[in-house]
Design brief:
- 34% of the residues lie in helices and 23% in strands.
- The chain is an alpha/beta fold and 199 residues long.
Length: 199
C-alpha cells in the first residue's frame, strides 16, 4: 500500500496548512484502521511518479529535513522516489521524471538522507517498535518503543524555541508505568525543528 495519507499529513503540517491535532488524528486513524501487518509494511513516501517532487513541495532545506526525518522514523517502509535523495525538483507527471543528476546531486540533501537511513538502521524500535503519537499546539511527535528501547521523535513547528514537558501533551495518557518517567522530563526544542531523543 502506498501511504499517501502519511505524505499529505507531513507536507501539510510542515507547510502550516494543518494543525498538529490534524496530523495526530490522521496517523492514529491509519494505525487503528489498518491491520497491523499492513501498517508496518505500508510504503511511506514523500513523492512518487504521480506527484510533485518533495523538493518542489518543500523548497526550504531545513523543512525538507524534517520531512525526511519523519519518513525514516515512522512505522512502515520508507520509499524514496529516485532523485529525491539528490534534491531533484519537478512538478506533476510528466515533469517529475527527469534524468538523475549524476555528478550534480545536492550534497547537503544526499548527506542527510544517508544520515537518516543510518539512524533508522541503528534501532529495531524504528522498524518493529510500537507507535504512540502525541501533540501539543504546534508540536507533533511520537514514541517508538521496542523491548527495552524507547525513542522520542518530536517536530516543533513553532519558530520560537519551546520547552516541552510530555505530561502536558495529548496522546500519552494511557502509557503504563514503565514509561511514566518520560512524562516528567523537560525537552528543549529549537524553533522549527526535527528532534530525536533516545532513552
Amino acid at each position: 500500500t502506498m501511504n499517501y495519507p502519511f505524505k499529505e499529513s507531513v507536507i501539510n503540517f510542515i507547510k502550516g496548512s494543518v494543525r498538529a491535532w490534524d496530523v495526530y488524528m490522521k496517523l492514529m486513524s491509519l494505525k487503528e484502521n489498518y491491520p497491523t501487518e499492513a501498517f508496518y509494511s505500508a510504503l511511506n513516501n514523500l513523492g512518487t511518479h504521480d506527484t510533485k517532487r518533495i523538493f518542489t513541495e518543500i523548497e526550504d532545506i531545513e523543512q525538507l529535513k524534517i520531512a525526511i526525518g519523519l519518513l525514516m522514523t515512522y512505522p512502515g517502509v520508507p520509499c524514496i522516489y529516485y532523485g529525491d535523495e539528490a534534491g531533484m525538483k519537478g512538478e506533476s507527471d510528466p515533469n517529475n521524471r527527469g534524468p538523475y543528476p549524476w555528478g550534480n546531486e545536492n550534497s547537503e540533501i544526499l548527506a542527510y538522507y544517508r544520515e537518516m537511513i543510518k539512524l533508522r538502521k541503528s534501532s529495531a524500535a524504528f522498524t518493529k517498535g510500537d507507535f504512540i503519537p502525541f501533540y501539543q499546539e504546534n508540536i507533533f511527535g511520537y514514541l517508538r518503543t521496542y523491548e527495552d528501547e524507547m525513542i522520542i521523535v518530536i517536530v516543533n513547528r513553532d519558530p520560537e524555541d519551546t520547552r516541552l514537558i510530555l505530561e502536558d501533551t495529548v496522546g500519552l495518557e494511557n502509557l503504563d508505568a514503565h514509561y511514566k518517567e518520560i512524562l516528567t522530563k523537560e525537552y528543549l526544542l529549537k524553533g522549527i525543528s526535527f528532534n530525536i531523543f533516545k532513552l
